[in-house]
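Reader question, answered in our methods column.
A reader sent in the components of a multi-part assembly and asked whether the whole thing could be modeled at once rather than chain by chain. We filled in our standard form and ran it. Here is what they sent:
COMPLEX SIZE: four components
ENTRIES:
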Amino acid sequence: MTDSALADTLREAGLKVTEPRVAVLTALTDIPHSDADTIFGAVLPSVPGTSLQAVYGVLAALTAAGLLRKIEPAGSSALYERRTGDNHHHIVCTECGAVRDVDCVVGHAPCLTPSDAGGFTVHIAEVNFWGVCPDCQNALTQKSAD
Amino acid sequence: MTDSALADTLREAGLKVTEPRVAVLTALTDIPHSDADTIFGAVLPSVPGTSLQAVYGVLAALTAAGLLRKIEPAGSSALYERRTGDNHHHIVCTECGAVRDVDCVVGHAPCLTPSDAGGFTVHIAEVNFWGVCPDCQNALTQKSAD
DNA sequence: GAAGTTGTCTTGAGTTATTCAAAACAACTG
DNA sequence: CAGTTGTTTTGAATAACTCAAGACAACTTC
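And here is the structure of the entire assembly that came back:
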């Protein structure tokens, strides 16, 4: 994705096009599911004078505009991704923290409807899977074979 | 639930029975889905010399022993509850933060199996619903009627 | 029932992710 | 090109939580 395409994306969302914003979008295209600090590290080379606070500001603005989705897995800092609006879920590795997208389970509206919401109006259902990624499975197998 | 029943619960889990631990269990029986600070406040009157750090320690020990479940909804601090081992879910009010238990959706193993786990071994599926509680619905209706 | 051992609590400080505020600055408008 | 509005920089502050060391209490053994 080119910078000018990203610029258009920003403009369409009613946001001003700035270097930090384009850089953050570029970084999240390359490395999705990154936290603010990782994004800051990825952005710093191309935007030398920037700061972590600026990254937080950009992330908040882009999330509010619907350009980013913020996910907050238990026990880790907030992660951001560009894939929005499709209600997909995530699986997190309990060993290394790796995150992977999981498409919505087999076409289940039932999955997203509690049996008894106790009078609550349900707006969204959030599903997170926890498990072990292939790499860590190998590492664990290796270890137990020692 | 009496203190001695709680004491037995602790002993059965292989934990020493102490005043702060009994007090934390009592507090969580009365007010489930509480955070460390709220529990601290509820415990303080009956265990005058205690500290927030002690509460954190107790919560960690009881959670590790399987006596408590820790839930960490996005954007809020960690909450604890005594209901464990039944894989139930939660619905959180986006207005006031109220949390309510939701029994597992209509008997769905499918709900807990991602369509493509990408090589991950899935251990647990976590489901959180976000919506508006009855009280806040009323408040919002009222407000729009003004 | 008393002494010892082990684990728990208290006290105090430190860490990390995140947020707030004010001034300097840059992007879009006309 | 100048003005306005919104963004970024700089610096500091906050909240939730963790770590560490000594004081202390619960269960065990005698």
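What stands out: Residues 52-64 of chain B form the longest helix (13 residues). Chain B has a mean pLDDT of 89.
Send us your own complexes using the same form.
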